[in-house]
Amino acid sequence: MPVQYLGILKVLVLHTKLKMQPIFFCLFFGLFFVSVSARSQETHLMIQNFSKEDIITTIVSGVDSFDFEDGNGPIERFQNKAIPSGATVETRMEVNYYASNCPFTMTFWFEDNSSAWYRINQKYAIGEAEAGFSTAGTRKISYSKTGITIVISIFDK
Description:
Layout lengths: L2 E4 L2 E6 L8 E6 L2 E6 L3 E10 L5 E7 L12 H5 L9 E9 L6 E8 L4 E7 L12 E4 L1 E8 L2 E8 L1
Parallel strand pairs: 5-12
Antiparallel strand pairs: 1-2, 2-3, 3-4, 5-7, 6-8, 8-9, 9-10, 11-12
């Protein structure tokens, strides 16, 4: 158990086996403070483009930085990504253990200048929230769950 001394501030750093960031116990002028950083849970997001058109870019919006370990979640992994027709893209997304919901919206722009969007709650991947799925646009978008992966499938209407 490592102990670090920073002047009159004594910091004891403990690591747990639960994928938790360090816990800081501080003794400062005889007062005891505890700061716990966010614990994350592994989820995955898979996008399958079964439409006849390439997705030329994706726009991610409606993300709360508290909901995802890195503060960006799907923005960092999917913003401005191209997904060719027939391709599948999958990525890991760490959701904040303490967040009750982790919703976001993703809009797809296709090479024919049409668009479609969906909104989903990433916590659905681990069964801790309803999917809250909604969609609109020029393509049919459906969702399913396999293990800890949300699968988004895009089809021509």
